[in-house]
Every structure is written in structure tokens, then in C-alpha cells.
Amino acid sequence: MTFGIIGNKNKAGIDKVIISLVKYFKRMNISYYLHDDFKQVIESKEINLKYLQLSPLLNKSDMIVSIGGDGTFLNSTRMIKHSNKPVIGINLGTLGFMSDIMPTEIKKFFGEVIKKKYKIIELHLAKCTVNGKYAFDALNDIVIDKADTIKMVELGIFYNKEFVGRFFADGVLISTPTGSTGYSLSAGGPIITPFSKVFIITPICPHSLNFRPVIVPDSGKITVKSYNDVKVRITPDGYRGLIRKAPLEIIIEKSEHSIESVKKHNWSFFNTLNEKLLWGEDIRKGKR
């Protein structure tokens, strides 16, 4: 098995983690390649590091190792595009919801991966089309909001051409199950298990008391229309997006592509909720 190592070269301590990982791979006679972006931040006189540019690295790797945080994991999914290579997330960030392998767990985890003791979680992507032209795919969410103004946008939502609602708001976000624990959660959306085949439509600060998050099957198409003259920003996974002016028709549907996330063999979504988001934590503890 060959591992391709990519990640956020600006993360503090990433050089030490990579050197530790490469030393382990060499000791275990495991093949690897480093993204050549790391040449700028990693120096080692002890070992001869093997670098490749991104495209050949993807071609020659069986699995991709993303080192950073959850933001790095999202960026890594853009980098690997549609290569269909499973991704392992090593956490150097804060939350570590998607990148959930800690540096201290590297040896044990990769030892189990080599023995094929791991779990694969298929994460579906959302595909976004703007005025009839393909724009991008997103793993977490696609945010449609106002750009460069304090004015609200007027949006209309349709599902399979059936009218859902029309409202003024700061925007709306369309989330996948993976993204349900991100921006959508902060905006009042529900938590959805990653195995669910749905999208979440979550308004952002709607000037209305009667439009709340809606869950729809991902087998259909969500259409968002912008009516007033406010510029609209369309952003995938918090990354650089598009700014357009009305009239706009944005269609979001399930992508034909997905991401395979490699987890510990005993991984549990609800255990992760408990550990990372304190799901079900009794706030009365210690107050009696």
C-alpha cells in the first residue's frame, strides 16, 4: 500500500508530524510520497524524503493522508478532486471532526490500516450549477448569501420545481449530512448522520417567523432564485466562491462523485458527537 501525504504546510508543528510519520513508514517498509509543497517547510538530514507533484502523487497513491484540521480536510477533498482515493485525516487543528486521527495515534492507526482494520465512510458531495453552468462540488455546504452589502437578499426556494418558500434573509445554505455539524448547525439546522441521503435547506437570519430548516431527499434538485438587485455570493465549503447579480438561478443536486473517508475500525458517529460537540452532556453536572 502506498500513501500520498498532503496538507496545510502552514500548520504549526506539521514538519514534526510528517517526519515522525515518514520515519514510521520507513521502519515498516511502507511506500509513501510527500506533496512537493512541503519542500518549503520540511528539512531533514536524517532521511531522504520522497516528493511528487500533486497529479503523479494521486496517481501513485492508494490512500491520501491529509494533515491539518477540518478546513485542511475540506481543502484536500478539492485537491484530490475526482481521483476516488480514500482520505485519512490527521488532526492538527482544534475540533477535529473530520480529521479525527491525533498525531499520538499515528503508529497504532496506520498499523491497523495495514492490517485492513479500518472503516470506510462514503461522504456524498453536492453539485452546484449557476445559471446553467457547472460551478463546483462541495463536501460540507454551499452558502448563498449577500455580498458587499448590509441589505438582505430576496430568495425563492424550489424542490423539483415545487415551490418551497420565498423570503428576505442574509442568505441560505444547502448542507450535506457531512456539513450538518458545521455552519448549518450554527444557523439552527439539525444534525444528520453521514449515512443519510438528504440535503438540509437552512435560512440564514431570515426576516420571517415561519421559514425554518427543511430536510429534503438528495435524489431531487434544489433551485434557489435571487430576485432583488443585491449581489449574491455562492461559496462552497467556505472556500473562494462566485459573486453574481440577479437574476440568478442556482441548482444544487447530488454529485456523481463522493469522498471515501478512512476511520478507525470502531468509529462511531454518535461517539464523535459526544467527544467533539459534547452531545448529550448534562450541563447540571457539578452544580448540585
Walk me through what this model shows.
The protein has helices at 14-27, 54-60, 70-80, 106-114, 183-186, 269-277; strands at residues 2-7, 31-35, 51-52, 63-68, 87-91, 118-130, 133-138, 141-146, 153-159, 162-169, 171-175, 198-204, 214-217, 222-226, 232-236, 242-244, 248-264. The chain is elongated, with a radius of gyration of 21 Å. Strand 4, helix 3 (70-80) and strand 5 form a beta-alpha-beta unit. The longest helix is centred in the N-terminal third of the chain and has 14 residues, at 14-27. The chain has 288 residues and is an alpha+beta fold. It folds into 2 domains: 2-116, Rossmann fold, CATH 3.40.50.10330; 125-256, Tumour Suppressor Smad4 (Sandwich). It contains 6 helices and 17 strands. It is 19% helix and 38% strand. Strands 7-6-17-14-9-10 form a 6-stranded antiparallel sheet. Strands 13-12-11-8-15-16 form a 6-stranded antiparallel sheet, with no helix packed on it.
Highlighted features:
alpha+beta, Tumour Suppressor Smad4, 38% strand, six-stranded antiparallel beta sheet, 288 residues, Rossmann fold, elongated, 6 helices
CATH superfamily of the largest domain, please?
Probable inorganic polyphosphate/atp-NAD kinase, domain 2
CATH architecture type of the largest domain? Sandwich
Report the uncertain regions.
Answer: none
Percent of residues in beta strands: 35-45%
The overall strand count is 17
Largest sheet: 6 strands, antiparallel
The topology string of helices and strands comes to: EHEEHEHEHEEEEEEHEEEEEEH
Q: Using the alpha-carbon principal axes, give the shape.
A: elongated
Compute the gyration radius: what is it? 21 Å
The CATH class of the largest domain is: Mainly Beta
